[in-house]
């Protein structure tokens, strides 16, 4: 007897997921990066796909293999991630932005390898576009926008401010100073904040389990 191992409760839904950190080039051989592994975003993409969704995964550099059956778009910099996300935003029913986007990029990227001639090297950084904020401004009725907030202090206060500023439906507040949560861990401990002010604390769980828990809640918001 054949039994369904999962509920295909996302059939007909198109999900855009971003994952991993971005690389901001300094010169042809160097970049500024961050500690994001991509595990959370890839787990969300995989879970949504298994539940029947059509999934587009836009990812910064990651050691992970994209889940089977998702449309994968690999990018490096925040600017490239922005372009890929904007290209697919209008067709998405929900966008889940798990990526750790670099806040700044190097102003004058050297086209040759920088030599170690001087005792000091000064790089000027300029602000990257805030992709999620732009999505919040462009969001049409019915589209669901989920962000992550990576914080080392004042978790709820900062996360709430991001939820409002970026016009999100839900934000996943992540205390990245914990050893069992955040960057490059297999588990996560998060609090979920909603537009109506509700806050939900989830227990520690694997990123795969959390991916399904997040999707359950996102579906409840919309369907
Ligand atoms: N984000 C984005 N584009 C950026 C920076 C962040 O889309 N240039 C998204 C992230 O993918 C995440 C959310 O915004 O879903 C929050 O990212 P976070 O780094 O926690 O917040 P920031 O708004 O960048 O603020 P700060 O780093 O100063 O806390
Ligand atoms: Ca940031």
From TrEMBL:
The keyword Transport does not apply. Its EC number is 4.1.1.36, 6.3.2.5. Residues 12-220 form the DNA/pantothenate metabolism flavoprotein C-terminal domain. Pathway: Cofactor biosynthesis; coenzyme A biosynthesis; CoA from (R)-pantothenate: step 2/5; Cofactor biosynthesis; coenzyme A biosynthesis; CoA from (R)-pantothenate: step 3/5. CTP binds at residues 103, 113, 129-132, 148, 162, 166. Catalyzes two sequential steps in the biosynthesis of coenzyme A. In the first step cysteine is conjugated to 4'-phosphopantothenate to form 4-phosphopantothenoylcysteine. In the second step the latter compound is decarboxylated to form 4'-phosphopantotheine. Catalyzes two steps in the biosynthesis of coenzyme A. In the first step cysteine is conjugated to 4'-phosphopantothenate to form 4-phosphopantothenoylcysteine, in the latter compound is decarboxylated to form 4'-phosphopantotheine. This is Coenzyme A biosynthesis bifunctional protein CoaBC. It comes from Anaerovibrio lipolyticus. The lineage of its organism: Bacteria, Bacillati, Bacillota, Negativicutes, Selenomonadales. The gene is coaBC.
């Amino acid at each position: 007897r054949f039994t369904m191992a999962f509920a295909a409760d996302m059939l007909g839904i198109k999900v855009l997921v971003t994952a991993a950190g971005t690389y901001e080039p300094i010169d042809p051989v160097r970049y500024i990066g961050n500690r994001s592994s991509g595990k959370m975003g890839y787990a969300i993409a995989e879970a949504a796909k298994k539940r029947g969704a059509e999934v587009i995964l836009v990812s910064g550099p990651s050691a992970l293999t994209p889940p089977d059956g998702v449309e994968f778009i690999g990018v490096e910099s925040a600017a490239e991630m922005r372009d890929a996300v904007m290209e697919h935003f209008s067709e998405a029913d929900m966008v889940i932005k798990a990526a750790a986007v670099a806040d700044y990029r190097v102003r004058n990227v050297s086209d040759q390898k920088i030599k170690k001639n001087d005792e000091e090297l000064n790089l000027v950084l300029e602000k990257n576009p805030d992709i999620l904020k732009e999505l919040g401004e462009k969001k049409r009725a019915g589209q669901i926008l989920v962000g992550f907030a990576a914080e080392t202090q004042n978790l709820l206060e900062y996360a709430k401010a991001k939820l409002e500023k970026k016009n999100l439906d839900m934000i996943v507040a992540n205390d990245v100073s914990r050893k069992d949560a955040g960057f490059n861990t297999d588990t996560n401990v998060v609090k979920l904040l909603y537009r109506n002010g509700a806050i939900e604390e989830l227990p520690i769980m694997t990123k795969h389990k959390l991916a399904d828990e997040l999707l359950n809640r996102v579906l409840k918001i919309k369907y």
